[in-house]
Structure to design on (664 residues):
């Protein structure tokens, strides 16, 4: 279930009253992120098995079915959900490709109430969901008081058989078998909650047949257990009532799988200790590369990674802070460690040990997965509660961003603004010319992202994507930049009509299911010809998943696009995969291009790279060329194209048109 199912909370906006249920067979995470950007809590799946039960259990008022590139699967899912949609007065929004809109009558017959055809923006999708919700409200068929209800959560204990049986819903939420031992259930309770449970059980003494107590369950939050004793059979029955909005099964299972508390129960633990007069130390941990690993290796590997992180954090925390220390997962890839009576020195030592532990690689999906982590700590003061203590730690964490090399803004200072920057159109593209060395003519351009930040000025692609990765918006940003580049190039003046356009894809893009289809759909929707498009991918993107990269590049070349390997010569360059991958261009990293004027040894290395590429039938583009001396030596070694400040920095369309006309 965890590989298929995900929950995304609204980004930077207050969450709406009810979640939105998303079923997308090829672009689940992209559609979920777009819906979350509109302010909804999203329950998302990529397979249709059990779709009706999942929709009803989610408490959603709107189901979004993404049938783009999956018409048959989408229609089958619509038929599955049609009855539940009608019975609960909900709405069903269908996303289709423009060419498939003619088939909407079949979805209408299946129970669909709304549809949206591509090309579609995140804003258009948010508006479509909003209109669907208005439809639901006008029908008055749904409200938060009388919404779709999931299966009951509860358990039964038979003293004669000494057997405990959980309802399927509770077993699923707690990630336990339906017939676990008593100890397995007890392990889900805090020690203080055990005392509440024992006190409630003692109240059932034959004269009192029913009672209740409230406590926290990891992954579920605050619950009330309604206990009832059957004197005739001696059996004990319990109905578990979740307080507030019904929890999503996937979120609870994912948190239960990590073995960590959830955020609300951890905050209540801190408040309880502080109210008793204790001192609490808190450490916040933010994983900085988790989303990249999650995208590259899949959600099952991501779950495995979170469990491994939780175990390692718990082990170190209890060694450094004592056995009473608690570990909570308070966000997608954020953890909290809290402990009684931890002063600043103790916390500092614990932070150092946690940093060392998290710097060691993890194993996810059978591969080595190095993670980055940022940590910050705070010790409680006399007037603190959980909120003020964690706010201080959070402010320290957010203020921990290091400036990028060259004196640019701290990445963490940018993270919170990227979502709004995309909405306000602050992030655009410029074009750096690529020049044929033999003729001096501009034959193409590379599209480069630029953020016109109101405080820090122009921010380049490297810093921008690093901030987007930390904000969990790397895929959204990549789609945005590709779309802007394609639509701009499709509307170039006639003087630029023969230029090639190069766009970049990231390692996370390579790992996204159906990415080739999505990219080609964007290309066709823009009107830019496939035959003039080059897709550039870095060595890191290829090595993250060589087989997936090979398949993606093969699909793009079959669709008449050309493919380049970017930044060759950095990190772990491999000569073997150049023979195996379908490539057209090799782009020499700027450091190699600039080293050619260095020692004789440096020149031999560059010569070897160019000779190897030419022998494989690849054209060679040198990046970062800044001097005439560098260009002359590259030309002598057989390099065919270059880009860099010697010709031009990245420029806008009017400046590009002037440059091309001068070079003609």
């Amino acid at each position: 279930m965890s590989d298929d199912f995900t929950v995304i909370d609204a980004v930077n906006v207050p969450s709406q009253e009810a979640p939105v249920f998303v079923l997308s067979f090829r672009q689940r995470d992209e559609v979920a992120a777009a819906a979350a950007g509109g302010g909804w809590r999203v329950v998302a799946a990529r397979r249709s098995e059990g779709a009706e039960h999942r929709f009803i259990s989610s408490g959603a008022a709107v189901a979004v079915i993404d049938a783009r590139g999956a018409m048959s699967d989408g229609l089958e899912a619509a038929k599955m959900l049609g009855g539940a949609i009608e019975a609960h007065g909900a709405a069903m929004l269908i996303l289709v490709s423009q060419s498939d809109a003619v088939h909407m009558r079949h979805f209408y017959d299946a129970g669909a109430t709304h549809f949206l055809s591509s090309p579609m923006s995140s804003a258009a999708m948010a508006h479509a969901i909003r209109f669907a919700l208005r439809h639901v409200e006008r029908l008055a068929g749904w409200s938060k008081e009388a919404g779709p209800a999931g299966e009951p959560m509860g358990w039964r204990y038979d003293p004669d058989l000494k057997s405990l049986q959980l309802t399927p819903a509770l077993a699923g939420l707690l990630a336990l078998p339906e017939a676990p031992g008593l100890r397995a259930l007890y392990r889900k309770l805090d020690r203080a909650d055990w005392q509440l449970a024992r006190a409630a059980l003692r109240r059932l003494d034959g004269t009192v047949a029913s009672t209740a107590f409230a406590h926290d369950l990891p992954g579920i939050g605050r619950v009330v257990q309604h206990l009832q004793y059957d004197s005739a059979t001696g059996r004990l029955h319990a109905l578990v009532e979740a307080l507030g909005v019904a929890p999503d099964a996937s979120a609870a299972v994912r948190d239960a799988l990590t073995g960590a508390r959830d955020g609300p129960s951890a905050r209540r633990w801190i408040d309880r200790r502080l109210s008793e007069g204790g001192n609490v130390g808190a450490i916040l941990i933010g994983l900085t590369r988790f989303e990249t690993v999650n995208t590259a290796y899949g959600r099952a590997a991501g779950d495995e990674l979170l469990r491994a992180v939780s175990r390692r954090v718990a082990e170190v925390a209890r060694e450094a802070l004592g056995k009473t220390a608690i570990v909570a997962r308070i966000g997608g890839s954020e953890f909290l460690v809290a402990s009684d009576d931890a002063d600043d020195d103790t916390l500092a030592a614990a932070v150092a040990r946690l940093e060392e532990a998290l710097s060691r690689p993890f194993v996810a999906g059978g591969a080595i997965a190095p993670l980055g982590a940022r940590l910050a700590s705070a010790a409680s003061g006399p007037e603190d509660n959980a909120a003020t203590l964690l706010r201080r730690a959070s402010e320290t964490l957010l203020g921990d961003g290091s400036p990028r090399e060259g004196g640019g803004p701290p990445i963490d200072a940018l993270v919170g603004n990227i979502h709004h920057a995309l909405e306000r159109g602050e992030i655009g593209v410029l074009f750096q010319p690529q020049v044929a060395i033999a003729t001096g003519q501009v034959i193409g351009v590379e599209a480069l992202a630029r953020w016109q930040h109101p405080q820090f000025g122009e921010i380049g692609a490297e810093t921008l994507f690093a901030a987007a990765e930390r904000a969990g918006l790397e895929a959204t940003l990549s789609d945005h930049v590709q779309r802007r580049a394609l639509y701009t190039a499709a509307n170039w003046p006639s003087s630029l009509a023969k230029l090639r356009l190069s766009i970049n894809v990231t390692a996370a893009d390579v790992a996204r299911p159906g990415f080739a289809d999505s990219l080609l759909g964007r290309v066709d929707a823009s009107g830019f010809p496939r035959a003039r498009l080059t897709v550039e991918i870095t060595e890191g993107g290829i090595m993250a998943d060589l087989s997936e990269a090979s398949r993606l590049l093969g699909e793009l070349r079959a669709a008449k696009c050309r493919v380049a390997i970017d930044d060759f010569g950095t990190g772990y360059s491999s000569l073997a995969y150049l023979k195996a991958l379908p490539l057209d261009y090799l782009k020499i990293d700027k450091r190699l291009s600039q080293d050619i004027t260095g020692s004789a040894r440096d020149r031999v290395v560059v010569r070897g790279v160019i000779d190897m590429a030419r022998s494989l039938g690849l054209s060679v583009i040198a990046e970062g060329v800044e001097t005439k001396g560098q260009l002359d030596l590259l030309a002598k070694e057989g390099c065919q194209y270059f880009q860099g400040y010697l010709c031009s920095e990245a420029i806008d369309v009017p400046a590009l048109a002037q440059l091309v006309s001068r070079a003609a």
Summary: The longest strand covers residues 442-453. DSSP finds 27 helices and 27 strands in the chain.
